[in-house]
Amino acid sequence: MFANSMSAIAGPCLCQGLQGSLRLSGLEGSRRRARVAVAAEAGGGEDGEGRGGKGRGGSKGSAQLERWARARRIRSGRMGEGRKGESSVAEAVKVVKEAPVSMVPDYESDEEEDEVHGKGVYMISDGTGWTADHAVQAALGQFEHCLVDQRCSVNTYLFSQINEVDRLMEIIRQAAQEEALVFYTLADPHMAEAAQKACEMLHVPHINILGPITDALESHLGMSPSGIPRGAPGRKTALSKQYFKRIEAVEFTIRQDDGALPKNIINADIVLTGVSRTSKTPLSTYMAQKGYKVANVPLVLGIDPPKELFEVDQDKVFALTINPSYLKSIRIARALTLGMVGDGRTKYSDMEHIRKELDYSRQLFIENPRWPVVEVTGKAIEETAAVILRIYHERRSKHHMPRISRRY
């Protein structure tokens, strides 16, 4: 997933052109009426040609380009030039509510495209979108049994830095058109209220991820939240010790990557070791962002590890292992990017060589029983890091229930 850009081709556009004025006939249900209202309002009136170009006669290519263009306009805040970002929540929601229901976009749905796109999940944030993205990804992990074979295909769309009501309304209208599920993390209570009302009017299923947590903290602390998004001009964040600790950790970890400067290993908080392609560098970088100084030492068949690996506090060392077949597939992909496949000069992705490497590393792990052996096969970086950090803090905690502590 990625901030401020879509994880797949944007869904059907709201602003397809209208060929004349079409009256609704036989529509059943308020949901259908709301979808039609949204499409009509976005279409720009009863002109022979709307903003989307030609209606039913337009080519699929033109329609696709228009959908891409609309997605870019929404993300960049250039939608609805006639309405300024200063418009109130009430005015913006009124636009949604009073949109005419007598018109419908004159274009045929592309069943082939719908099959490719699957179900839509929108994530809207007034910040980076990290919270919403990770929450949704964690929940989607519970549906891997059907996602893996596309029995429940899902596309997620992340909209970050959404700080204007007009942009928020455009996104929700598009979500209604696509029958998408909406998650939002909006610190500004007025923005959150606007999102809720618009979703209710358009019958869009929605979840306010941040709201219940903020309400619970407000009750627990006896203080009102500021309602100012993180990174907003009016919000001042002091440069804390934690900030400088993170900077120092990142700089240290970069210097210690791939066995560099072994004499500095003693200064690391965590030391990772394992054969090539066991995620040592990504894990190191991820944990460094959390303020941990991490060094990683590669294990190479036929080459002794640096003596510092055995001299450092052994409670800091974590051994990484992986399934040989899984490792082979990773190394083949890596070799392809380096142009190493088929040149006959390397055994990098040879299964027999991989097994020898893993046997060598396994024997080393047995000889050093204080090193926790962490399995990385099929795990996300965050999952593996969570295991390592849990063990790290368990070994240093004086509490009967180990936990990771942080003071604000």
Structure description:
The chain contains 15 helices and eight strands. It has helices spanning 30-43, 60-76, 89-97, 111-117, 130-140, 144-147, 165-178, 189-201, 210-221, 241-255, 280-288, 308-311, 324-338, 351-367, 381-396; strands at residues 119-125, 154-159, 181-185, 206-208, 270-274, 294-298, 317-321, 373-375. The protein is α/β, with parallel strands linked by helices and 408 residues long. Helix content is 43%, strand content 10%. It is globular. The protein has a four-stranded parallel β-sheet, sandwiched between helices. Strand 5, helix 11 and strand 6 (294-298) form a beta-alpha-beta unit. It folds into two domains: 30-221, no CATH class; 241-396, Rossmann fold.
Give keywords:
alpha/beta; Rossmann fold; four-stranded parallel beta sheet; 15 helices; 10% strand; disordered N terminus
Summarize, please:
The chain folds into two domains: 30-221, no CATH class; 241-396, Rossmann fold (3-Layer(aba) Sandwich), CATH 3.40.50.
Query: Could you say which structural class the secondary elements and strand pairing correspond to?
Result: alpha/beta
Strand order in the sheet with the most strands: 2-1-3-4
β-strand number: 8
Question: What is the CA–CA distance across the termini?
Answer: 29 Å
Number of helices: 15
Number of domains: 2
GO molecular function: ATP binding; protein serine/threonine kinase activity
Organism: Ceratodon purpureus (Fire moss)
Pfam family, one: Kinase-PPPase
Keywords: Kinase, Nucleotide-binding, Serine/threonine-protein kinase, Transferase
